[in-house]
Design goal:
Number of helices: 1
Number of strands: 0
Number of domains: 1
Largest sheet: none
Helix content: 55-70%
Strand content: under 5%
Radius of gyration: 12 Å
Length: 39
Amino acid sequence: IDGKQYNGKGSSTDILKASARAYIGALNRFKLSVENAGG
């Protein structure tokens, strides 16, 4: 997003669930970085 990379971690025996959890984790990291930057 905007040239930055955000990583997430997801764990599950189901690859789709693990991928979704990792994606949500990355979005949460992005949201936190925006909030901390005052945006």
